[in-house]
Specification:
By secondary structure, the protein is an alpha/beta fold. It is built from eleven helices and eleven strands. The strands form two sheets. A six-stranded mixed β-sheet has the order 2-1-3-10-4-11, sandwiched between helices. Strands 7-6-8-5-9 form a five-stranded mixed β-sheet. The radius of gyration is 20 Å and the shape is elongated.
Amino acid sequence: MKPHYVAEMVAIGLMVLASGVVSGQTYPSRPVRIVTSQPGGGNDLATRLVAQELAGPLGQQVIVENRPSGVVIVEAVAKAAPDGYTLLLYSDGLWLLPLMQKVPYDPVKDLAPITLVGRTPHVLVVHPSLPVKSVKDLIALAKARPGVLNYGGSVPSSSGNLTAELFKSMAGVNIVGINYKGNGQAVIAVMAGEVHLLFGTAASVAPQLKSGRLRGLAVTFAQPSALAPGLPTVAASGLPGFEAGTTYATFVPANTPAAIIGLLNRALVSVLSRGETKSKLLDNGIEAVTSSPEQLAATISGEVIRMGKVIRDTGIGVN
């Protein structure tokens, strides 16, 4: 799918909110399900925490339904009845994947946004032998040795790889990507000195940072993160304007009544704003974030534009 849907995102989000005359007063009258990816990952962890907390405000059981792959997950929700009983909680792969390969869904036309749920930053780490102590040092070294430095990653479309490619694009440097079967193997490769650096999740590199087996340079959020205490941001330490991370959000099928979307938004924002919920998410490497449906639509639109350029410039995917 081409990124033709970028300009439509905000407009369709607003249309969804303006449409529908079904009252949310009798909703929900039975259990609600939230569809997400396989157990164990960030999507699943966030979904289970949200489901546990959401049952109270809704007054109904909230069931987590795991599906094997992103495409299957999104397609299942997109084809579900637009009655508010099937939700989707998924990461930014939902709207970035269509920029990299053909998918049987349109993230704008087939889904209606509810709210942001959280964000996970990446941490830029290097092997301790690399003679750099800051992002500014790393950029200078990479420019002095074009094509010599390399970064560890997993599949090209992964969040860590996309963050690395965004870094390369904004810094104007040539750092070679070397892919492994997963983020865990990439972390091991950096510790072993097989590759020079990595944009890893805070949870995956925290133990190695504490032990000194890796050196942390910066966190990829626009502001310092409690998930990477003591580290500056990439933007403040050498690359102004840089921001990246994994974003989690919730959706319902398109044409879900506005009253139900509004009710779900209020319930989700309420539970995500609780100190206890924030602490639980933080313990699992996620910073709680909330939004209105319109704000989520605008966030997606901006990310599609920004990361779409990186994806096109690097040739990631088949489109």
